[in-house]
Design brief:
about 600 residues, single chain, five-stranded antiparallel beta sheet, disordered N terminus
């Protein structure tokens, strides 16, 4: 082969080497792919091979030819291990790429380099025998060349087979591009095999570095442009295509440039007909990320149907930060809105029912009792939507005697309200002016126990009030209930009453009658445990605070006193109480007698 032809091939090899070096620099600069470093080494090895081979072809001196021929082996011995590591990373066998494997792969390249560097062993691999005058010397392989050739091809062929098998298993979306990768990987292997087996004119010139330029370019394109070694695009595409939410992509001018099947179904048109439409015709520009959107869309029967969507709008930017478009996602919440509306109506109905039941637990207004002021307060727990178990009543027993009852049924809800109503109206029916309170309450207990469908216990205070010229006499019994508080007009306060057994627990409850006389201006306060057990974190309102409020309000009316008591509870524990609260204040009219 003439010198001119060799010079031309040297130029081609140099160009290929420079191109591969540029690709290696690009891969090293990106550094955003898992197998990027092995690809960079692979390209750099091919680049060095091409440049060194170009110099070997371009010089006339046999010594320089031999030197650069030896130097090109630095690229040749590195290329096969780098290709093997790249394929392992590509097919997902990253765990195999260990330092032990890298050291094992480095044994043959290091041995080959040492053999070429030592003059005594150099010709075991390659040599330039003397050539006739005017002839270009041609390299000859030594005794170990075939072993080196066989090892390199074993690594290259094994890695390439693994590469071909793995690309054959890719999803159909990647098949066409995977074929391009496989062909690009096989070309340099085939060219090198033709050269080393002395087939035709391939025997004189090794075009492997030039062919490898094509392989390197295709690998870089596939890795960084088409991302063939990453299933992320395929996964994102599959998710987007199957999303129930409608997704629109618009350009900076607001025209729809892409949309998923859910979006085309929403619009009721084809994808082709939807592309190019103004996004504002579908999603108003004032719809925000947190906002909702209502659209009148045709139903299955063609009738317009109002549907509600959550709108998510995400601006897109290019690498320089300039606006590139917008992605809008419509997530339908029509059923959720309808469910919320139904729930709101249900809660409103529940509140009305609860309010009606609660109202039945207390008298609409307290009766007028001669010489006595009466006032009551009833506050349900929470927001008032759940029926509580507290109740109170004041009623005429005849013979200038009035009965009063205040109770608390365990639990909440309709069952508690049932027990409250049964207790209140049973006591009203059994109460009599000539019967002691404890006798009446025992009869109520027997009645509650006889109603087998009632499984809740009840605490209450039931008493009788008889006005007299010096105030009033109160006789009462406590069935597991908190003792009332008496506040004297002359000063001082005390809890009164003997605690008995709650109702609906035992056949023969322990009950005691207590008699208290209220002088002019004295006050009796009866309440449920929701008053003293109102909480602020771990602290309870307590009897002491109740007594303090009652003592400071001795000059006020019963209504004012009850209001001040409820206000104090709200100030202590907040607007919503953890338990129901019922209060009955009874205050005799008149001033205390002066003491001598």
């Amino acid at each position: 082969m003439g010198l001119g032809v060799l010079t031309s091939f040297a130029t081609v090899m140099a160009t290929a080497g420079i191109a591969l070096a540029c690709l290696a620099a690009y891969v090293a600069w990106r550094r955003d792919a898992r197998m990027g470093w092995s690809l960079a080494v692979l390209l750099l090895a091919g680049a060095w091979w091409g440049v060194a081979y170009a110099v070997e072809l371009g010089v006339d001196d046999v010594g320089l030819k031999s030197l650069w021929g030896d130097l090109k082996y630095l690229g040749i011995v590195t290329l096969a291990p780098a290709w093997f590591v790249f394929v392992l990373q590509y097919v997902g066998w990253q765990r195999w790429v260990t330092w032990r494997l890298l050291c094992a792969l480095a044994v043959v390249p290091i041995t080959t380099t040492l053999l070429l560097a030592i003059p005594a062993t150099h010709d075991l691999l390659r040599s330039y025998p003397p050539a006739a005058d005017g002839e270009v010397p041609e390299v000859e392989g030594g005794p170990l060349f075939n072993a080196f050739f066989g090892y390199n091809y074993l690594i290259l062929v094994g890695a390439t087979v693994l590469f071909v098998v793995s690309t054959g298993r890719l999803a159909r979306t990647y098949r066409r591009m995977a074929v391009v990768l496989v062909v690009a990987a096989l070309v340099p292997l085939a060219v090198n095999a033709l050269h080393n087996t002395n087939v035709g004119w391939f025997a004189s010139i090794d075009l492997t570095p030039f062919a490898f330029t094509l392989t390197g370019a295709v690998l870089v394109w596939g890795l960084f442009h088409e991302r063939l070694v990453d299933l992320g695009p395929l996964a994102r595409s599959a998710v987007l295509e199957r999303m129930a939410d409608a997704v629109f992509v618009a350009d900076p001018y607001g025209r729809i440039v892409d949309l998923n099947p859910a979006a085309t179904e929403l619009l009721g048109t084809s994808r082709t007909a939807s592309l190019g439409r103004w996004l504002a015709d579908v999603v108003p520009a004032d719809a925000t990320d947190e906002g909702t959107l209502e659209l009148d869309l045709p139903d299955l029967d063609g009738a317009p149907h109002r549907r509600t969507f959550d709108v998510s709008r995400q601006q897109l930017s290019d690498v320089t930060g300039r606006p590139a478009g917008v992605v809008v996602v419509l997530h339908e919440i029509t059923e959720r809105v309808h469910d919320r509306q139904r729930l709101e109506r249900l809660l409103e109905d529940q509140s009305r029912v609860a309010a009606a039941l609660q109202a039945s637990m207390v008298p609409p207004m307290l009766p007028d009792v001669r010489g006595i002021e009466l006032a009551s307060q009833y506050l349900p727990a929470g927001d008032g939507r759940e029926v509580g178990g507290d109740f109170l009543d004041v009623f005429d027993l005849g013979q200038d005697t009035w009965g009063f009852v205040l109770g608390d049924v365990s639990g909440k809800g309709a069952e508690a309200a049932t027990v409250s109503a049964a207790t209140r109206y049973t006591l009203r029916a059994l109460a009599a002016a000539d019967a002691m309170p404890s006798e009446t309450v025992r009869q109520v207990n027997a009645s509650l126990l006889g109603q087998t469908d009632l499984e809740r216990h009840c605490t209450l205070v039931y008493g009788q009030v008889r006005p007299d010229p010096e105030g009033a006499t109160v006789v009462f019994t406590l069935a597991g209930h908190h003792p009332p508080i008496v506040v004297r007009a002359t000063g001082g306060a005390e809890e009164v009453g003997a605690l008995g057994t709650a109702l609906a627990l035992f056949d023969d409850p322990e009950l005691h009658d207590t008699t208290v006389h209220l002088g002019p201006g004295d006050l009796l306060c009866v309440f449920t445990d929701g008053l003293v057990e109102a909480r602020r974190e771990r602290e309870m309102f307590g009897v002491e605070r109740v007594t303090a409020v009652l003592g400071c309000a001795s000059a006020r009316t019963a209504a004012e006193i009850s209001t001040r008591l409820v206000d104090a509870v709200h100030d202590f524990s907040g607007d919503q109480l953890a338990d129901d609260l019922a209060v009955l204040v009874m205050r005799t009219v008149g001033s205390p007698q002066a003491t001598s």
